[in-house]
Each structure stands twice: as C-alpha cells, then as structure tokens.
Amino acid sequence: MTSSATQALDVLSLFGLPQGTVVLVTGGARGIGKMIATGFVQNGAKVYISSRTAEACDAAAAELTAMGPGVCVSLPADLSDYEECQRVKAEIEKEGALNVLVNNSGRTYEAPLAEHSDQAWDDLMTLNVRRVFTLVQALTPLLEAGARGGTGRVINIGSMYGISVTANESYAYCASKAALHHMGRHLALRLGPKGVNVNTLALGAFPTDMLTETLDNSIDEIAAGVPLRRLGQASDIAGTCLYLASRAGAWTTGAIIPVDGGSMVVPQGVL
What we know:
Elements: H1 11-15, E1 22-26, H2 31-42, E2 46-50, H3 54-67, E3 71-74, H4 82-93, E4 100-103, H5 118-148, E5 153-159, H6 171-191, E6 197-203, H7 209-213, H8 219-224, H9 234-245, E7 256-259
Parallel strand pairs: 1-2, 1-4, 2-3, 4-5, 5-6, 6-7
C-alpha cells in the first residue's frame, strides 16, 4: 500500500475527482450554482441540481449532461420547506453515498431600515441558514458513506458581506450569511471526526441575476472597485469547489475562504 508520504503529487492525483463522485448542488439551475455544477460535470461527476422551478432545473440538467463527460440530474425542490429537504434526501439515498454537498440555494433582500420587512427575516434565515442545517443533518449518513469511499465534503456558499459591511441595506441577508459562516465552523468540528470536511466560501460579486436585481451601480463600476478589476467568473468559483472536493483540499476544514477578487481588503471610507 502506498503511504501518505509517497502518494503521487501530480496534478491529476491531487485535483482530480475520484471515479463515481456524486454531488448535490442546491440552487444549481442558474447563476453561481450552475457555474459550480458545470465544473463538476465537466470533471466527470454525477451531479444532482435542485431548484424551485422544475423547467429551469430540467433545462440546466439537459444542457450540462449534453456537455459531459459527467451527467447532471434534475431534482426540483423548494428547499425552504422542511419536507422538500427530506424528499431530496430520499432521492439521494438511492445513490448509497454522497461525496459533495454544495449549499448554494439562497435569497437576498434589501430595504431601508424603517421599511425592512419582518417576513424577510424569516424567509432569509430559513432558506439561507436553517435549511442548510436541515440538509446537512439529513444527508450526514450519506456524506459519511462518501467519506468512507474517499471523499465527504460540505461546501457552503457564503458572502463577503457575512464578514465585512456593505453600504446596501441588506440587513437580513448579511446577518444570514454571517450565521452560515459560523455554523459551517461548528459543523466542521462535529463532522471532522467522521471524515467529512465543511468549508464556507465568502463570495464577492459575480455577474448573476441576484446581483443585477439589486444593483445601485453598474457592473463596470462594481468591477472598478475590486482590486483585480473584474467580477468573478465561472472558473473562479468552480475551481475553488473542485479544489475543496479533491485530495488537495483534504486537510482544509472549518475555513471561510474569500473568493472575492480582493474586495475585502479595500479600505472603507470614514463616515
């Protein structure tokens, strides 16, 4: 048997996905979730994508499967609902194991302080935090089975605004992402001994529908404020997720990893 000290350190061995890798990407029909799902499919994984809209989910799955060499399976579900999370679990159970869970489903909301909706707090904390916990809780036995087969990973999609403060009045969204970051660390402590790594990505601006729906500035203006002078691309987020899912990321857990083009190091103006 090859010892850990003498295992191959070539790129494919370090960063490639094991044959038969099974992945679940929530919110995988569009935006960042679709970018992530594409990266896994293009590297040979079987990827389940979940989305509230069945038509969008089916279309994305067909597109990604045609792209190959992996396959993409549509699993429509409203993941803000507890029972829907359990239904997703029942479908994934047919695989016998889950190697990677990407918790990407999320919602944003912005309104002035005096008008900020009480219902928005319930909606965002439920989908962005509570149901992430529900899915991890439900899928832990399958992730443990994946870990015994070589890979068990949870990747949470957080935000730079769970760490830094935005001028936009998105109080509930920012609080939910900060909660997600901390919950990821807590889960890493509990699941690490079971062989399951848990990490959270603190994302900056990517050109998605969620961003354009809340823009006060143009995309060019936003990019000008990023040290790398551009928004995130599919390769940025997919590459980070593939690293965390691979042997190269096997000793990384409990981390909050910025994927933001350096946005969080930009000094903020004084009020």
